[in-house]
Amino acid sequence: VFINLLTVYIYYIIGIGAFFRDLCTRTLTEDGVEKLNKNIAVLLCNMEMIFPPSFFDVMEHLTVHLPYEAELGGPVQFRWMYPFERFMGHLKGKAKNLAKVEGSIVQGSLTEETSNFSSYYFSPNVRTRRTATKRYDDGGVAPVYRHVVPSIFKEIGRLAGKLKEKSWDHKHLSAAHNYILRNLDEVHQFER
Length: 192
Description:
Pfam family, one: DUF4218
Helix content: 40-55%
Organism: Noccaea caerulescens (Alpine penny-cress)
Protein name: DUF4218 domain-containing protein
Number of strands: 0
Domain DUF4218: 23-135
InterPro entries: DUF4218
Shape: flat
Radius of gyration: 26 Å
């Protein structure tokens, strides 16, 4: 029903997402690589019709080489450096003494490993990073109301931040009303 409301340009952007999804699959066939190799040039041409030339630099055009690289090296999850770079950033965050970075990283890593390992031997009521409750969890205690409150407002949790008053325009107010009417258990009995 809503498919006619979308512009044709959205399909080009979805195509780029599908390209990366297909490129990152665990099993990659030669036919799939050939198909990716043919499609990426067309996808980039379509993107050039949407975005201004200032959007495109070397990084956007490097996607043309990714299928060939996957053909030579195999599936990308064994070659991409994202997990290692993320872990190196985690380790660099442990460096407190910038004069001796390597020793500081080692000391921080050993401290983290030791605290994680020893947290398994604490009693369950001792709060650690491993046993911490969720951010908005009040311990599973449901609030008690003086008046009858619809089921959609009986979620367990607490407010985040300072109380702010906000007035909504008609668009957002009708969206909130529609959400409540579609998700309220008390209204389901009146649906056809």
